[in-house]
């Protein structure tokens, strides 16, 4: 249980990462990934990387620059332009539904305009799910200059596209539906220089 705890990726650039284990029985036709990050990086960095043997960017949350997020599904991505952060925690949720090919992006509890992405696609399993690095192959192929440095917390993955109420609940750390990856009951393994610490502020 990592409630009120954070993962601190200490080095920049870094070869460290955290492996997440999810109970993934079948392919995903809908999904939501949420997390909170705190960093002063201005270079590109990966926040959440889900790779299959067939597709290294099966699900990827990537921040190429301070005023932009990229959300990948099945190797294709949409870009969400955001105000440059004020060096504070940023909470992001990205959801996708195959039937309509709709990607949603929420930053700090507010929705951005929806975009079209990968209608009819299915996200594969089994998966290698990592925090801190961007996979260019299944479980590897890292570029250190895409690594994350800073603090991560409140990481979740659902096999549904969350409703607006639930998106806001995730931002406010309220009660959430059962998840494939749940920060409060996370199965994870640290590889390299990553330290678990209490959150400094609520």
From TrEMBL:
The keyword Signal applies. Signal peptide: none annotated. Residues 3-202 form the Pentraxin (PTX) domain. SUPFAM superfamilies: Concanavalin A-like lectins/glucanases. The keyword Disulfide bond applies. Keywords: Acute phase, Calcium, Disulfide bond, Metal-binding, Secreted, Signal. GO terms for cellular component: extracellular space. One of its GO terms (biological process) is innate immune response. Its cofactor is Ca(2+). It comes from the Eukaryota. Disulfide bonds join 34-93. InterPro entries: ConA-like_dom_sf, Pentaxin_CS, Pentraxin_domain, PTX_dom. GO terms for molecular function: complement component C1q complex binding; metal ion binding. It is found in: Secreted. Binds 2 calcium ions per subunit. Belongs to the pentraxin family. Homopentamer. Pentaxin (or pentraxin) have a discoid arrangement of 5 non-covalently bound subunits. This is Pentraxin family member. The gene is Ptx2.
